[in-house]
Amino acid sequence: MQITKDRVVAFHYRLSEPGVGPIEESHGGEPVVYLHGHGGLIAGLEKAMEGHGAGDTFAVTVSPEEGYGPRDENAQQRIPKSHVIGGKGAIFRPGMAVRVNTPSGQRTAVVVKVGLKMLDVDTNHPLAGRTLHFDIEVVSVREAHEEEIAHGHAHGVGGHAH
Ligand code: ZN
Prior knowledge:
162 residues; mainly beta; Chitinase A, domain 3; Thrombin, subunit H; 2 domains; 5-stranded antiparallel sheet; 4-stranded antiparallel sheet; 2 helices; globular
């Protein structure tokens, strides 16, 4: 069965940055599960999945424009440590990912600098502005249930839990 719109795909990936090195991979854990054709993956990767079937392996290089977008150099801000979700009593270090409350809701930020009461954080996605290389192994492809199509995401193991 091929990957087309409204099918649920499970896959393993190995992610690296060309010329820099490995970033992360799913091998050794659960595969990623998503509903194809609903924007569940970054655009460049979802496009490359189209037409592949279970057992296929392939590689794709994704530009920032089709990945996590360009870096916004104005996305650094100084926030009180008390604005970090679940951060009470935590020891903060540069490079650490934290969840913060912002006027536009909760988001992930990376700690840049640690002060006594304040933190400088960067709210860019950690992969923003980076060219990404994926080695993909398609594990399985199945038809989506009506409910999954209505919700726009996969259910079950590795999918969305309600
Ligand atoms: Zn759902």
